[in-house]
Amino acid sequence: MLIRPAEADDLTAITAIYNHEVDQGVATFDTEHRPVSAWATHLADGEPLLVAADDAGVHGYASAFPYRPKLGYRFTREASIYVTPTGQGQGVGRRLYVDLLADLESRGMHLVLAAVALPNPASLALHTACGFEEVGTMREVGHKHDRWIDVTWLQKKLS
């Protein structure tokens, strides 16, 4: 499996992976599908957007967004990793994170944040394995699928 920068041809697959999580999971608190055009905008913005792909297609993606729009946060990014259900537990997430973190460090980023909806021991283990440390949990901050959801924040210092 190859980890590489996303291309326009990957955006439909990225959209499908994300929208599956909108419908089925809690990795995002979005409740409406994100259109392909939103991913095209992200790709055009120049922020990292990587895919894990092989001859069978795209099995996951990694992205990073500015944490907040204020200038003082310009060296901090919030990272997201999404993997297809069939790709989970296969090392796809870790490979994506290794390349995403290297990309962010090469851009001069100082800190990477990640939010994990609970319970999700696999995601917490992935982040810990990639050098993130937990910095706090917000209780019942999200509501989806008729339940309140806690979110744990993690961070990794790059420089």
What does this entry look like structurally?
The protein has 4 helices and 7 strands; from the N terminus they run βααβββαβαββ. Helices cover 30% and strands 36% of the residues. The mean pLDDT is 96. It is globular, with a radius of gyration of 15 Å. By secondary structure, the chain is of the alpha+beta class. It has helices at 11-24, 36-45, 92-106, 121-129, and strands at residues 2-5, 49-54, 57-66, 76-83, 111-117, 133-144, 147-157. The chain starts with a strand and ends with a strand. It has a 7-stranded mixed sheet with strand order 1-2-3-4-5-7-6, with helices on both faces.
Mean pLDDT: 96
Structural class: alpha+beta
Helix proportion: 25-40%
Strand order of the largest sheet: 1-2-3-4-5-7-6
Strand content: 35-45%
Low-confidence stretches: none
Give the N-terminus to C-terminus distance in angstroms: 29 Å
Number of helices: 4
- Rg is 15 Å
Total number of strands: 7
Instruction: Tell me the series of helices and strands, N- to C-terminal.
Output: EHHEEEHEHEE
In this structure, how is the largest beta sheet organized? 7 strands, mixed
| Large-scale geometry | globular
